[in-house]
Amino acid sequence: MARWQPGTRERLQAVALRLFAEQGFEQTTVAEIAAAAEVTERTFFRHFADKREVLFAGQDDFLALFIDPITAAPADTAPFELIARSLDAAGDYFPHDRRPFSRVRQTIIDAEPSLGERELGKLATLKVRLGEVLRDRGVPEPAATLAAETGVTVFHLSFQQWIAPGEDRSLATIARERLDALTSLVATGRTVGGTSE
Amino acid sequence: MARWQPGTRERLQAVALRLFAEQGFEQTTVAEIAAAAEVTERTFFRHFADKREVLFAGQDDFLALFIDPITAAPADTAPFELIARSLDAAGDYFPHDRRPFSRVRQTIIDAEPSLGERELGKLATLKVRLGEVLRDRGVPEPAATLAAETGVTVFHLSFQQWIAPGEDRSLATIARERLDALTSLVATGRTVGGTSE
């Protein structure tokens, strides 16, 4: 077989996901994944450091997705608008045809605590990086950290909704709805006397 | 020695904390804690299920602290104001003289990943409970979950600041400052054109 068949990486990913879902993550070996994808183990390891990386590959791309719209925005863009732009860009990274993959991936992660922790670690890294890039733009504390935390929370809740059974709206639409809900929540709280009591 | 000396629980807690800090959580045994507190191991286990519970005892009280002000509030209280009341009450639970304990406890938790996960689990439970109690009051989704997540995020960030070196403001003051920062963040984002673009 050819050493660098086009689409090998994607095929390995699809096959691994199917095997993880069918027989469990722990129970699935790299040898099985490679055999099912009709490549050698050596080829598998050319694409992924280990079987866990099949589920977490592309973390740098994932982070850049949120960070790049912030670094690209005009200097006077308000922090909350930076977060909104970040979430819009993240929406583009998860198009409709990726949803079945994301749903299966989440099922696998939910079934294995160590994978769940890795996923939370990914989101924690995103919070740290967003906070850094906001501070680099001159957003003061505690606003920078709050904006970063809030942005990741909105992303996480929106993503959970995006993969919920029966949901067919885009991730960007869901995230905008949640940002608007947060705006209403905070605005209503003040009017009724939250901070002025 | 007396079986139910007053203050035994508090003495066990103080002694355990000192030993965990001095020699590490994993390296410290219940036998050592009991000996240093001049009680039997049996007495230790009458107060705590295991050594980890010395650090996590009182979780029900901790949850009630956030929940009770919400269930006690008038029916028309805005959700964000409910969160503010919750944070005020939490502030009372962490008075100034508890800060040295909280600082040492955090150092111990930060040094041991399994304790860090337990601590995150505690905050995750708080998010779930807050969301439930808000929905019970008729707060719709996604506002209820957003309010719960935001409240716990503000609490967590405020608590981290409260135990930071040199910090001497009250937890309630720090939490209010962060709620106000969140309000400004969201309000400014809208003005500059966040959701109206």
Fold blueprint:
Two copies of one chain form a homodimer.
Chain A: H1 8-23, H2 30-36, H3 41-47, H4 53-56, H5 59-72, H6 79-93, H7 99-110, H8 113-136, H9 143-162, H10 171-191
Quick gist of this model?
The first copy, chain A, has helices at residues 8-23, 30-36, 41-47, 53-56, 59-72, 79-93, 99-110, 113-136, 143-162, 171-191. Chain A is an all-alpha fold.
Structure characterization notes:
The structure is a homodimer of 197-residue chains. With 197 residues, chain A is mainly alpha-helical. Chain A folds into two domains: 8-54, Arc Repressor Mutant, subunit A (Orthogonal Bundle); 58-186, Tetracycline Repressor, domain 2 (Orthogonal Bundle), CATH 1.10.357. The first copy, chain A, is built from ten helices and no strands. Chain A has helices spanning 8-23, 30-36, 41-47, 53-56, 59-72, 79-93, 99-110, 113-136, 143-162, 171-191. The first copy, chain A, is elongated. The relative contact order of chain A is 0.10. The interface between A and B is large, with 41 and 41 residues.
